Amino acid sequence: METGPTCIRVIDLETGGNGPDEVCEIGWQDLRLGMDRVWHLDDERGSLLVNPGRPMSPDTIAVHHILDAHVAGAPYWKEIAPIVLRPAGGVVALAAHRAAFEQRYCRPGLTGAAGWICTWKCALRLWPDLPRFSNQMLRYLRKPEGLVHEEGLPAHRAGPDAYVTAYHLRDMLNEVSAAQLLAWSQEPGLLPRVPAGPSRGRPWADLNEDALHAFAIGRDPDIRFSAQCELRRRGKDPARQTEEPPQQARLF
Which of 109, 153, 192, 215 registers the highest number of CB atoms within 10 A of its CB? Predict the structure, then answer.
């Protein structure tokens, strides 16, 4: 018999591009650990419009197509967030694809300090051979069993996006433990390949040591972490500087 929460709630937000409480829609989809010790999508899902308190930017409206008129009579974020983020019975964790974005708005005071699983970071770990890792690309590259195409549309709306993310998370949870996903989510993303520049698309294992050390002192935390991990895999010290630091580093 379970003595604690058996639910993980996947969250997706749409925002208005206008300030710290700019959320204009929140969507959620629950996963639950069954008696068979397998994670399943639960019937608990939905979405709610949120009044961001000011007009939304045309740039963001063009993404999600939620109009100011649609949210004019909706509750404000601080009213609605605790209701969705702290469901009855508690959660093992909250989850989102590129969860750092949702965490900007779903602050600990609203969530009860729940842990977060980032399905983007976990996809990098579990499925490194895939060419891309966006929520929608994972949907079409992996074709999760049971995902109803129409239920995941329209894209860039909070309810359908949370639904799609939940299928990725279900498959992850049935490969590794929730504790492992939470641990990976606390670290930067472990990129399987160099994402930009002359070495773009090359696995880190193909790079020489000097190139890795140059990446290991860069500004991007995911690139830096990925290069450092490859150096550690080779038994090298990631803190060692290259003999010739990058030009950018010499300017300061």
Answer: 215
Residue at 106 is within a domain: yes
Q: Distance (Å, rounded) from C-alpha 80 to C-alpha 164?
A: 22
Nearest-10 Cα torsion for 180, 186, 190, 191? 120
Q: Tell me, what CATH number does 73's domain have?
A: 3.30.420.10
Question: Helix (H, G, I), strand (E, B), or coil: what is residue 15?
Answer: strand
The model's pTM: 0.92
Q: Residue 69: CA atoms inside 13 Å, Cβ hemisphere, count?
A: 1
The CA distance from 103 to 203, in Å, is 30
Residues 6 or more apart whose CB falls under 8 angstroms from that of 184 comprise 118, 121, 122, 125, 190
| 252 has a pLDDT exceeding 90 | no
62 and 174 part of one domain: yes
pLDDT at 246 over 90: no
Please give the structure tokens belonging to residue 151. 């239920």
Domain residue limits at 238: 188-246
Sequence-ordered list of residues with C-beta below 8 angstroms from that of 21, at least 6 positions apart, any chain? 52, 53, 76, 77, 78, 105
Place of tokens 């300017």: 251
Assess whether 23 and 60 both reside in one domain. yes
Mean per-residue pLDDT over the chain, rounded: 93
SS3 116: strand
- Measured CA to CA, the distance from residue 23 to residue 104 in angstroms comes to 10
Residue type at 90 in one-letter notation: G
pLDDT above 90 for 18: no
